[in-house]
Design goal:
The chain has 100 residues and is an alpha+beta fold. It has one helix and six strands; from the N terminus they run H-E-E-E-E-E-E. Strands 3-2-5-6 form a four-stranded antiparallel sheet, with no helix packed on it. The chain has a two-stranded antiparallel sheet with strand order 1-4. A hairpin with a 6-residue loop joins strand 5 and strand 6.
């Protein structure tokens, strides 16, 4: 009987501890930049910038943003780790850059 009560107490303790561990604060990393035409250095307004992480061999979208009129963007709450930034704009070749 004491063994059963100890196991119940252990499971109760683990149940209380698990949410505490799962709710650790995420670092507030951010990515900023400007998207420019490589030839003319003109800003590309409203280009898409997306952040991907490879999960099970596939690129999984995490977050992203659109550039403003000056081609600038900021993406907040970017997770840490090995990521891929993809920049797309109609009429241009897509750009993929690794983020380490």
């Amino acid at each position: 009987m004491k063994t059963v009560l100890r196991l119940i107490n252990l499971f109760t303790l683990l149940a209380w501890a698990t949410p505490t561990v799962a709710q650790q604060p995420v670092p507030n990393n951010h990515l900023t930049g400007k998207v420019l035409d490589a030839t003319t250095a003109q800003a590309l307004p409203f280009a898409s910038v997306a952040i991907f992480k490879q999960i099970n061999g596939k690129d999984s979208l995490l977050t992203g943003a659109q550039t403003d009129e000056q081609g600038a963007f900021i993406i907040t709450n970017v997770p840490t780790g090995s990521l891929l930034a993809k920049v797309t704009f109609v009429g241009y070749q897509n750009l993929n850059k690794a983020i380490l």
